[in-house]
Amino acid sequence: MKTDEQVLIESIQKTLIANTPKQPNQAGAIPEGISSDKDSWRHFEDDAFFCAKTQQVLTTDMLVEGVHFSTDYFSPFDIGWKTMAVNLSDIVAMAAMPQYCLVSMALPKTMPEPYTPTGWVTALYNGMQAVCKQFGGKIIGGDTVYNPNGIVLSVTATGITEQAGFSAHRFNARPGDIVLVAGHHGLSAIGLSCFQNKIEGFPESKQAHLTPKPQQAAMRAYLDVCRQHDCLEQMTLTDTSDGLAPALIQLATASHTVLCVDTEQTPIHPEVYAYYEQYPQAEHARKGVSAALNAVLYGGEDFGLVAALPASIWQDKASNAKLAPFFTKIGTCESNPQKGTSVTTIPGAYCKVTGQTLQMADAFQHFQ
Q1: Closest CA to 187 of 312, 96, 302, 82
Q2: According to the model, what pLDDT value does residue 235 have?
Q3: Of 125, 114, 112, nearest in space to 77 by CA
Q4: How many other CB atoms sit within 10 Å of the CB of residue 65?
Q5: In Å, how far are 68, 84, 138, 139, 159 from 99, measured between CA atoms?
Q6: Residue 31 has pLDDT above 80, yes or no
Q7: Is the dihedral of CA 251, 253, 257, 263 positive or negative?
Q8: Residue 31: phi, psi to the nearest 5?
Q9: Could you read off the pLDDT of 92-128 as tens digits, one per residue?
């Protein structure tokens, strides 16, 4: 039977809920300070887990050769950078700062030329430490094992919330909020296509694919504005590691709301436009609307941010001045879909321009 990633995650959620003791003093119980009901696991996906008692955020991510990177065009430094950056992006999306990291590696006996195993691992760690130097975090240990089938890397990271007692979540969006996006989407997909097809040019796209950068400055601006307006308990963030459209759908689903996305306001980098002008038959060109927009929505591995915020805060001049350098307004949260759209169920996300729902099936899925 074929495995479906979302079904797999939901199955794990149900198993955790069913087998978690309700009393804090029981073995295997959720630590004191964390709700023991099903809401505890609502954001058990690719983001992090927040313990209110310790103010800590915990996350883990795994990267596999041939799935997340190729040694044909990733240097070991780049692999190290990406491995650490994807984890820290989850920490940032919880409105937290990186703290400690454990790195586990499964490696073959020989490494790609011209590297010795020691030289390759040294370059890998240089990449990871470069991310930590720029965005925070400290590598404190890990594990190493032999794997005859390629390179597998896993990082478990902790973070500490910048504002005591408060973390950002996917499930805080409310009807009337506006939807914001930070970071350029679609670039990583273009970069990947360029590497795979040996296409010259598109330097920003290639860099976005090799060395993604967590949107830490955007998060801090968002946190500052929420603090000033005394709405820390409403902070709504999620990163876009799986793509912009999946992030919008996941946020809508977790918040039990509908997101109306104005794709005409969604930022599209000039390199994304340029790529599809030169290669109109490329990936995403066959998904309708426009190839560039579909790359933005479904390309994936962009590691930007989606946020929700009360409209009154965005309209406040001082707050807008802080947020506008990082965020673009692309939509609104609604309690019910607008008349005339194809949306028939809540929650979800739909395109204001076409009236069509955004689909998880159009994004990258493991096991597909």
Answers
A1: 302
A2: 95
A3: 125
A4: 20
A5: 24, 12, 6, 9, 5
A6: no
A7: positive
A8: -55, 150
A9: 999 999 999 999 999 999 998 899 999 999 999 999 9
H or E stretch covering 245: helix 244-255
Round to whole Å and give the CA distance between 155 and 141.
10
Q: Sign of dihedral through CA atoms 339, 344, 345, 348?
A: negative
Tokens of 4: 């479906």
Q: Which residues contact 283 (CB under 8 A, 6 or more apart)?
A: 189, 193, 295
**Residue 303 pLDDT exceeds 60:** yes
pLDDT tens readout for residues 230-245: 999 999 999 999 899 9
pTM: 0.86
Q: Which long-range contacts (C-beta less than 8 Å, at least 24 apart) are formed by 360-364? A: 360/6, 360/245, 360/246, 360/249, 362/245, 362/287, 362/294, 362/297, 362/298, 363/242, 363/243, 363/245, 363/246, 363/298, 363/300, 364/242, 364/243, 364/298, 364/300
Mean pLDDT, rounded, of the chain: 84
Dihedral of the CA atoms 205, 60, 132, 168 (nearest 10)?
80
Can you tell me the distance from the alpha carbon of 236 to that of 219, in angstroms, rounded to the nearest whole number? 11
**pLDDT(25) > 70:** no
DSSP 356: P
CB 77 within 8 A of CB 126: yes
Q: How far, in Å, CA of 56 to CA of 151, rounded?
A: 30
Q: Is 53 left (phi over 0), alpha (psi -120 to 50) or beta?
A: alpha
CB count, 10 Å around CB of 345?
Answer: 8
Angle at 66 between CA 61 and CA 72, to 5 degrees: 115
> What is the Cα 345 distance to its own chain's centre?
25
